[in-house]
Amino acid sequence: MSPVISLRKTRGGSASYLASLLLQQGESPAYVQRQLGHASIQLTVDTYGKWLPMGNKAAVDRLDDQQINRAAEASGSRIRF
């Protein structure tokens, strides 16, 4: 069984470090909020939001492909990805 780390028991840089790691690994801000004991999700997101993964290259690529296909269809070309 892996040890449970409570962010509430850490102070200063340790809590910030652990919170940033959790968020970078995809843990929900609500979970991190509860672990830190923050009164609101807004405080957590304002403080650690820069560590939230925002990029989803696959989703952007799909949108790009759809736009290219629409443009090709409009011009009479038959490009498919």
List the SSEs and their pairings.
Blueprint: H1 13-24, H2 29-36, H3 41-48, H4 57-75
Helix pairs in contact: 2-3
Report what the structure shows.
By secondary structure, the chain is an all-alpha fold. It has one domain. Helices cover 58% and strands 0% of the residues. It is built from four helices and no strands. It is rod-shaped, with a radius of gyration of 20 Å. It starts with 12 loop residues before the first helix and ends in a 6-residue tail after the last helix. The model has no long low-confidence stretch (mean pLDDT 78).
Keywords:
81 residues, mainly alpha, 0% strand
N-end to C-end Cα span = 46 Å
Rg is 20 Å
Number of strands: 0
Gross morphology is rod-shaped
The total tally of domains equals 1
Give the helices and strands as they follow along the chain: HHHH
Could you estimate the helical fraction of the residues in percent?
A: 55-70%
Number of helices: 4
Mean pLDDT: 78
| Share of β-strand residues | under 5%
Characterize the main sheet: none
Overall SS class: mainly alpha
As residue ranges, the low-confidence spans are none
